[in-house]
Amino acid sequence: MRALLFAALCAVAGLSGAAETIRIKDIGKMAGWRENALTGYGLVTGLAGTGDSSRNKATRQSIANMLSRFDMTVVADDVQSRNAAAVMVTANLSPFARAGDAIDVTVTSMGDARSLVGGTLILAPLKAANGQVYALAQGPLSVGGYKYDMNGNVMQKNHPTVASIPGGATVEVGIVNDVSSAGTNGGATVTFVLSDPDYTTASRVAAAINNALGANLALAQDASGIEIRVPEGRRARLTDFLMAVENVSVEPDRRAKVVINERTGTVVAGGDVRISRVAVSQGDLKVTIVTDNSVSQPLLVSQTGPGVRSARVANSRVDVEEQGETGFVAAGSNTVADLVQSLTRVKTNTRDIISILRAVKAAGALHAELIVQ
Question: Does residue 89 lie within any of the structural domains?
Fold first, then answer.
């Protein structure tokens, strides 16, 4: 059934994907457009005895340091940490974040806290790789799970030591991304970067931009980047110009790939992936070992010695079953979808199809990149 579904999907892909055009914004982005990772250390308080134990000196020291900011001097050894937990706070700063924007944060336990349910994150600065603070995080945690244990009985759902705070961080320092730069001719340019580098697609994108905007503005620099010159009259309204560029339609080229997931028995391929002439012969040999366990009981226990007792006897047999006929498929200049349909007609299961495709690739008849996950 799964193989039939695969073949049907391949056939549909072969029919609908022949002249498919998409917007170039769906296959790449402007250079300089990237998110920035932020990381911070903090304390979660308000836990109902599910926080870090007294063995975590870092947690107790952090609580003592926090109290010292409020003019309270407490020795770390005197601090009880069961209602608190040391956590790491992570977030992603969008490429156009401005001061005052709210971003989502993720909170993860560092110590031996059993659960973060009901906790609140105390103000934690979030730093980038350069060590500068870009956001401040604080707020009640949202935990999509729980864990309760008593007398050796444990009931747990999901991971209660990981939580999130939607909009829990406030951006303090915004990011200014200037996507334009000085081009080779001295004018302002922007660079469009493909998600999957390909020379054919890069050339088609440049040609499509030139045809749509009516001038020789785009030039493919390599398999990934297309340099686009910004006309002098549109530099003041760069956003409108980039909107026009992003909505240009293009027919991207794609490499022939066959993706195999052996754990789930899934095969995904484009409907136009070609194979050369190949003959496939597939047989099936099943070896089954069956063990029958029985108990041998003495007839007259009272008349035997003290060492006589019941004995457990295992009787094993080996059954060998070989398929009477082997499936034979002769494929000419067809696609992978045609081969799978032929194998399905001879009742080949999905995992055998995976092995056959790997063998066809080894024979040099599969003209596609074979990716095994």
Answer: yes
